């Protein structure tokens, strides 16, 4: 009997490690229908916000009626999301000579200023929807 109880406990423990949640991201405030929205998702501060190679998810979303939608299934954890409006379709964020973005940018938690993981991070422990508003300079 003890072996059965231990076996059930181990089996249930295995399921808890593999749990995922669905993250739905709505991008709002897009000023034009040109180009696409590019996004990156980070699970820690390493590489955030600009080292795309350290992102755990990256991709693009199409613009429809001034908004874009992204749907991801991710393991439970903490994440930060960066997005930008690649209006000229060159797969890069255009900046001015000060390094400020010339295309719309946004991040989870919608804080303005220099993006940081600490200010952008949120917890994903169940299905969640977040809204990111783009900011244009």
Molecular structure report:
The mean pLDDT is 90. This protein has helices at residues 2-17, 117-120, and strands at 20-28, 36-42, 57-61, 68-75, 77-86, 105-107, 122-124, 128-133. It is mainly beta. The relative contact order is 0.25. Strands 2, 3, 5, 6 and 7 form a five-stranded antiparallel β-sheet that branches. The N and C termini lie far apart (67 Å). It is built from two helices and eight strands; from the N terminus they run αββββββαββ. 15% of the residues lie in helices and 37% in strands. It is globular, with a radius of gyration of 18 Å. It has a single domain, classed as Immunoglobulin-like (Sandwich).
Strand content: 35-45%
Classified in CATH, the superfamily is Carboxypeptidase-like, regulatory domain
Structural class: mainly beta
Number of strands: 8
CATH topology: Immunoglobulin-like
Residue runs with pLDDT of under 50 for 5 or more positions: none
Distance between the termini: 67 Å
Radius of gyration: 18 Å
Biggest beta-sheet profile: 5 strands, antiparallel
Tally of helical segments: 2
| CATH first level | Mainly Beta
Question: What features would you highlight for this structure?
Answer:
single chain; 137 residues; mainly beta; Immunoglobulin-like; 5-stranded antiparallel sheet; 2 helices; 8 strands; 15% helix
Could you provide a short overview of the structure?
Keywords: Signal. With 137 residues, this protein is mostly beta strands. The chain has 2 helices and 8 strands, in the order H-E-E-E-E-E-E-H-E-E.
């Amino acid at each position: 009997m003890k072996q059965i109880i231990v076996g059930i406990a181990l089996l249930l423990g295995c399921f808890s490690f593999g749990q995922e949640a669905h993250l739905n991201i709505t991008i709002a405030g897009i000023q034009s229908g040109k180009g696409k929205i590019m996004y990156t998702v980070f699970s820690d501060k390493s590489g955030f916000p600009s080292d795309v190679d350290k992102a755990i998810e990256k991709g693009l979303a199409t613009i429809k009626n001034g908004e874009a939608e992204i749907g991801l299934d991710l393991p439970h954890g903490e994440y930060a999301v960066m997005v930008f409006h690649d209006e000229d379709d060159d797969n890069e964020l255009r900046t001015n000579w000060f390094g400020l973005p010339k295309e719309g940018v946004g991040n989870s938690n919608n804080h303005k200023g220099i993006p940081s993981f600490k200010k952008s991070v949120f917890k994903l422990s169940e299905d969640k929807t977040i809204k990111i508003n783009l900011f244009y300079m």
